[in-house]
């Protein structure tokens, strides 16, 4: 009888000499993941992280911020110091106006020296001379010198270099050919300006009130000199000096006169807003809160500037500039409505916070146009002229705003910033139409730029 075939026991087959138990374990062991599986792509760094990854950028930014903070301290410190010792706010205001006028004359010449001889060689001695002027002012106030010495001493501080302009010039040099990164850098610099002018007055008032009236001026001078020394020491990021200037004055560059006129009108907005807000707070019996209310406006501008820099710029700056000023004009109606309809300082503070959000985008775009229209061998001079226009506008706006408050009403004072911003919008529209006419023959031109020498 034939025998039935033998059954194979499950899992008892020996393969390649491997014992059954080991073979079972190997066949049921989880296999490692294939190395060829796609990995999650690394997160793209943000625009500001990429910006400060530029070699040397963090070092010169730290020095510049230290040097820039006193710009918001000096005027408040000097007013407290002079008015407290001489008992006259009129004298303090006249001394401030003299220093402002001296700065408007001297600052462009200082910037021209920066372009020709380099930032380090010019900024350090210019800052040292301005520091001596500040010390002389303190001594004249402290020891009761004649009033005319106060004017002379404060006028000597006009040699203070435009540290914000020098920082923007470094970014323009380091990021040449990368307009998106330069847009982010200009936005950061404007936010830094707002931050310094927001914290500076508070810091100055704290020093003068806690220690002695001269403390704000002395500490501000020490910070300015320290920051400029740190900034100037970063030679690897310094633009090379342009010893042979072949281009004409930035004032003669096409489009620059109208552009500087918009800065003058924009400065009038800032000057009037400051005076009218102080008067409104005083009328409500909360004059001490005026600084906090104005700081909210600067805070809104600072936040908007950082957000504006994180977004890619849409369209040419000539087209964006009128849009930014139009937004600023529209938002400036909020403080006018808050003061006229509610009479509440709290409502005004909220309105100024929102209204400030259009300031930084407007200034960033305006500075971008200044950089584009200015010959590159006179870049510091061009940006200093823009700052000079702002200072002149602030002086005019302060005077007109004070007159409206005194002769009409405090609430009506907020109408002047709206009018000044409307004038800036008309000037910006004329500049944009001129630029578009000049660009029409060659499509795709992004604006006049002078080659590096």
Automatic annotation (TrEMBL):
UniProt source species: Streptomyces dengpaensis
Start and end residues of each stretch annotated as Disordered: 1-47
Superkingdom of source: Bacteria
Record key words, sorted: Membrane, Transmembrane, Transmembrane helix
InterPro entries membership: MFS, MFS_trans_sf
Protein name, as recorded: MFS transporter
Gene3D superfamilies referenced in this protein's UniProt entry, alphabetically: MFS general substrate transporter like domains
Statement: the UniProt record of this protein carries the keyword Transmembrane: yes
Skewed-composition ranges (Polar residues): 28-37
TM regions (residue ranges): 59-83, 89-111, 123-145, 215-234, 255-281, 287-309, 321-339, 345-370, 382-405, 411-432
